[in-house]
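The instructor's notes for this session suggest beginning with a concrete chain rather than abstract definitions. Hand out the sequence below and ask the class to guess, before any prediction is shown, which regions might be ordered.
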Amino acid sequence: MADIRGGDAGVRQWLRGIEVFARLLPGFAPERAPAEPVALFLDWLAEAVAAGVPDPHAMTLSTVDASGAPDARVLLLKGVDGAGWQFAGRAFSPKGGQLACRPRAALTFYWPEHGRQVRVRGTVTAGSAQDSAADFLGRSATARAEALLGRQSQYLTDPADQERALAKSLAMIEREPSLVDTAWTLYTLEPTEVEFWQAAESRVHTRLRYERCRGGWERFPLWS
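After discussion, reveal the predicted structure:
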C-alpha cells in the first residue's frame, strides 16, 4: 500500500496517481437517445445488471433539511415508470422529515464498471397507504422488523438493546405476518431534469440532459 502520510500534498499526489476510466467503456451517441429519459435509464440499468455490476439499483438520495443543509444516503430503487423514480422509507425518519419540509430531491446512480452516471432531480410525493403497505410487506422479515422499531438514526448506547428489540419485533411479525408499519411510505420523485453521463478514458466525457417541458421532454447535449 502506498505511503500517504506525507501530509496534504502526499494525499493529493497519491489521489492524482490513481488510474481513472482506464478500461474499455461503452459508447454513447446522444443523437440516437430515445425521446424520454425512462427508456434510456432502463437500458443502462439492464446493461449494468447483465454485466454483473454489484447492486446496480443502488442510488444516492440527496435532500435538504429545514435549515437548507444538504444530506445524502444510499437507498435501493423500488421502481421507475412514466410517473417517476420510486424509493421508500419511514415518514418519521430524517429523510422523511426533510421531504415533508422540502419535497424536492435528487437521485444519483453510478455504475463504475461502465463509467456511467445518471442524475435525476425533481419533486417528491408520498404514495398511497395501499401502495406503501404493499412495498412494506414485500420486504424481508428482518427488514420489516427493524422498520417497526422506529428507531432509525437514533443514538445507540448498547448494541444488546438493539438485538433484544429486534428479536421482539421479529416475534411480533411471526405472530402477525401481515403487520404493516403505517409510517412506511413509498415515495415517487417526479423528474424535472434527468442527466446521463458517459465517461471516456480521454476525459472528454459525453453528457445529455433531458429537461421537462410542456407536453414532454427536450434533450440538450452538454459540454463535458
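Then share the key points. Residues 25-141+186-222 form a domain with the Pnp Oxidase; Chain A fold (CATH 2.30.110.10). The beta strands are 58-64, 70-76, 79-81, 84-90, 104-111, 116-126, 184-198, 206-213, 216-222.
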